[in-house]
């Protein structure tokens, strides 16, 4: 941090005698004489903030559209309680697959506030929310705390009469009957074929049990529900 070389060797270390913000530089030379260097800004004698998420708790579950309050604090050994301007929230939606792999969607950021609220987004299951609170002290040291929020789910059963119609729910086409787990309050498309053949008999779509069109959206209810697509033979 002072422009001079403090130590050399295959492994190096340096102890700073005073606290403060410095830019440390490391230079590496290989056996052929090629050189590269990098710098990093550090704060010897300083410690990063301590962050606490007060709301929501990890036990909080959510349905689509629910308002979820957030609040948190951060303290620093040198500065005491940090101001809201030094806090920043991020809401991340994790979309997962049956294999367990997940990818992340950044939904919303809330910079410079200690508290507030957000509305749970609409998404297919499996998915969960991750709320992050990051605190930054005056020297730029940061700490991030995270809380995972799992959704409220419901099991919806899809059947046809007669059985065996290939019904489309979301992006998946499956022969009825079958069951899907959905996030309560989520909007999901359902579609029944206009006709299908069962045991050599031709059938035409007549109606869904919820009164919707052959292709329509359903909002996942709070309780397990069955949706039935009814078919009838064509009139002679």
H-E order = EEEEEEEEEEEEEEEEEEE
Cα distance spanning the termini = 92 Å
On the 0 to 100 scale, the average pLDDT is 94
Let me know the largest β-sheet.
5 strands, mixed
Which residue ranges are poorly predicted, with pLDDT under 50 across at least 5 consecutive positions? none
**Overall number of strands:** 19
Indicate the proportion of strand residues. Answer: over 45%
Work out the radius of gyration.
29 Å
Could you list some keywords that capture this structure?
mainly beta; elongated; 5-stranded mixed beta sheet
Topology:
Elements lengths: L21 E8 L5 E8 L7 E6 L11 E10 L3 E2 L5 E10 L5 E10 L3 E5 L7 E10 L5 E8 L3 E9 L4 E4 L2 E4 L2 E6 L3 E5 L3 E4 L2 E8 L6 E5 L5 E8 L4
Parallel strand pairs: 11-19
Antiparallel strand pairs: 1-2, 3-4, 4-5, 4-8, 6-7, 6-9, 9-10, 11-14, 12-13, 12-15, 15-18, 16-17, 17-19
């Amino acid at each position: 941090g002072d422009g001079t070389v403090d130590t050399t060797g295959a492994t190096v270390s340096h102890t700073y005698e005073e606290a403060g913000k410095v830019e440390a530089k490391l230079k590496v030379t290989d056996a052929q004489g090629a050189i590269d260097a990098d710098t990093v800004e550090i704060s010897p004698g300083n410690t990063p903030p301590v962050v606490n998420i007060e709301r929501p708790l990890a036990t909080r579950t959510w349905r689509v559209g629910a308002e979820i309050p957030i609040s948190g604090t951060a303290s620093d050994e040198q500065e005491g309680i940090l101001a809201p301007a030094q806090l920043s929230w991020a809401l991340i939606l994790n979309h997962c697959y049956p294999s367990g792999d997940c990818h992340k969607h950044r939904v919303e950021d809330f910079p410079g506030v200690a508290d507030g609220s957000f509305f749970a987004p609409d998404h297919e299951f499996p998915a969960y929310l991750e709320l992050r609170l990051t605190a930054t002290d005056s020297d730029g040291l940061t700490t991030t705390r995270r809380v995972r929020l799992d959704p409220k789910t419901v099991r919806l059963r899809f059947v046809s009469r007669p059985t065996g119609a290939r019904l489309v729910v979301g992006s998946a086409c499956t022969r009825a009957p079958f069951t899907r787990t959905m996030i309560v309050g989520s909007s999901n498309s359902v579609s029944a074929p206009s006709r299908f053949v069962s045991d050599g008999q031709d059938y035409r779509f007549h109606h869904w049990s919820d009164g919707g069109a052959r292709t329509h959206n359903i909002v996942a209810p709070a309780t397990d529900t069955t949706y039935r697509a009814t078919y009838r033979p064509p009139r002679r």
